[in-house]
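Bug report

Summary: structure tokens for DUF5683 domain-containing protein differ between web form and batch submission.
Environment: batch mode, default settings.
Steps: 1) Submit the sequence below via batch. 2) Compare with the web form result.

Sequence submitted:
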Amino acid sequence: MHKSSRVAEAMLWSIALPGFGQFRNGKYIKGTLLIVMEFLINAQSNLNLIIISSFHGDIRGTIDQTDYQWLMFYPCVYMYGIWDAFKDAGGGTKPYAVFPFVFGAFFATIGVIYSPYFLGAMWLGILGLAVGVAVGMALQYAFRNRFATDRNGS
């Protein structure tokens, strides 16, 4: 299997459920730990109820159902699972490859923090994730070009 196919497959499994990408990469202990954390945070934060209410347009219901003390852990566990599967499959070899994952987790967590005031926990968290990944990709591009220019003597 081609390297890019392995990387994409590991990332897609991790997007489906944190820990599945680690199982795909043969990292069974780490995968089991991520799955346990996923189920614990999901159950304690009421994430499945939040998702259902969000898709029904019941933003007030999502805010009332959410345990924010637990939900704030989810973006970091989720993005770490994707990053780790990506890296272990051979995708994290370029400088600053971690930036989109770190900034995605950071902005998604900020979205969760402010979600009681706007859009509810799921939608503002996902919006924050998208913004964070975009910021991370832009910074990754800028840092790679800036430091590549410095190494080339320009």
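Above is the batch result. After comparison, the two runs are identical; trailing whitespace caused the diff. The radius of gyration is 17 Å. The chain has one domain: 3-149.
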